[in-house]
Design brief:
With about 210 residues, this protein is an alpha/beta fold. The protein has one domain: NagB/RpiA/CoA transferase-like (Rossmann fold), CATH 3.40.50.
Length: about 210
């Protein structure tokens, strides 16, 4: 990565971390994917029950593989015949893993969901939530974060899941009410009432969508 981009990301990450701290959340900066993996594992005690939503970033830093190969109780929803049971198990997990669709430079997290299992677990249930966030998802303000979530993340995910939505066909949000829409619930996390519950690892890389 270009050294000027690296420096910019380092400086921006420090601003984001201060914003997170003002919102009773913890932030960390990882210089690369390997550092992000080490930081994530440092936040997850061995023996923990761990599960996740559908975040690509968690896979991209190698965290899912490390949990499956390590001394952890990884609740793999893909291994469940009953998907509802897997989703419900998340609410009693020690650690829930996710990314964000976008976030602001002062620490607000934005997530959009179709079934609501991801956003509901972020909001309440698991004892700890660990976010893996590429610096490509940091936006200047809440308006920019919402636009990114709706016009970048949502269309790509709709295409990834093979859904028949206007955004999947055009690449832009139409604020649709399609039966296939994945923009059913919007969660803005602006403050954590419970200290040490939400942890955000900012990665000096482009991760996820």
């Amino acid at each position: 990565m270009n050294e000027n981009i690296v420096k910019r990301n380092e400086l921006l990450a420090q601003k984001v971390i201060k914003g997170l701290e003002s919102r009773n959340m913890s932030g960390y900066y990882a210089a690369d994917r390997a550092a992000a993996l080490r930081q994530a594992l440092a936040l997850i005690p061995e023996g923990s029950a761990v599960t996740m939503g559908g975040g690509m970033s968690v896979h991209e830093i190698g965290l899912v593989r490390a949990l499956k190969e390590g001394n952890y109780n990884f609740i793999d929803r893909d291994a469940f015949a009953d998907k509802r049971a897997a989703m419900l198990a998340a609410y009693d997990a020690d650690v829930f893993l996710s990314s964000v669709n976008a976030m602001t430079s002062d620490g607000e997290l934005v997530n959009i969901d179709g079934n609501a299992n991801r956003v509901s677990a972020i909001a309440q249930g698991p004892k700890k939530v660990v976010f893996i966030v590429g610096m490509n998802k940091v936006c200047g303000d809440l308006d920019g974060a919402m636009k990114r979530a709706r016009n970048v993340a949502a269309p790509i995910n709709a295409q990834r899941f093979g859904l028949s939505t206007p955004c999947a066909k055009t690449g832009a949000c139409f604020d649709c009410k399609s039966p296939d829409t994945i923009c059913c619930q919007f969660l803005i996390t602006r403050f954590s009432r419970h200290k040490d519950r939400i942890h955000v690892i900012l990665v000096n890389d482009d991760l996820g969508f």
